Amino acid sequence: MTMIIKTFTFNPFSTNCYVVQSGEDIVVVDPSNQSEHEHLQLIAAIEALPGTLKRILLTHAHIDHIFGCARLASHFEVGIEVHADEVLLLERAETQAAMFGVELERPPAPASLIEAGSPIHFGDRTWEVLHTPGHSPGSVTFVDREEGVAFAGDVLFAGSIGRTDLWQGSLPLLMQSIFGQLVPLGDVMRILPGHGPATTIGREVRANPFLVGHAPL
Is residue 215 very low, low, confident or very high in pLDDT (cuts 50, 70, 90)? Predict the structure, then answer.
């Protein structure tokens, strides 16, 4: 069964949101929609697909990735899912928003917790869950090996890596996540990041200045 991926870039931080369909099941990865226009755009895109929204998945709970949680969860009556180590960030969403001078509707408590090693199922897809901390303590990457794609949040970008100066960020831990979890996925694995264009593991290993010539710290 074909998997359809639609990419949207929302909010002042230009954060990617992914709408993924398999069969009659739809999931959203990182609802970054903030403005009323963005809310309506995302809702319309989901409702235009021949399926039903089943899951709202967070790679992590930094403010720019959770703007749309409340609106989406309420509209579709679907709970959000996040790693346990991100729950505190989710609970402090309003504090995060104040720090960056932006507005946010308080997200609901998670309906369930994402765990590394516990796969995500929808349609005919099975996604592996990798715990990839460093940018954020509970950052996770969703991997579809059949499709050859990984939703990596803010762990690895085209030509860059996630920042580590936020709460519980760690450069050594981030590098361990990249080299220990992502690089072994293989050169052809396509990375769909939280910001910027898609890339591949091979391209980043060869050309990313943060990776070339480096090993885990």
Answer: low
Which residues is 52 bridged to in the sheet?
25
d(CA 201, CA 34): 30
Go through the domains of the chain in sequence order and give each one's CATH number: 3-207 (3.60.15.10)
Question: What does the pLDDT average to over 69-82?
Answer: 97
End-to-end CA distance of the chain: 41
Cα 105 from Cα 66, distance rounded (Å): 9
- Angle CA(211)–CA(214)–CA(217) in degrees, nearest 5? 110
Buried b or exposed e, range 11-28, using 16+ CB within 10 angstroms:
bebebbbbbbbbeebbbb
What stretches of 10-140 show up as alpha helix (H) in DSSP? Answer: 36-48, 63-66, 69-76, 87-91, 93-100
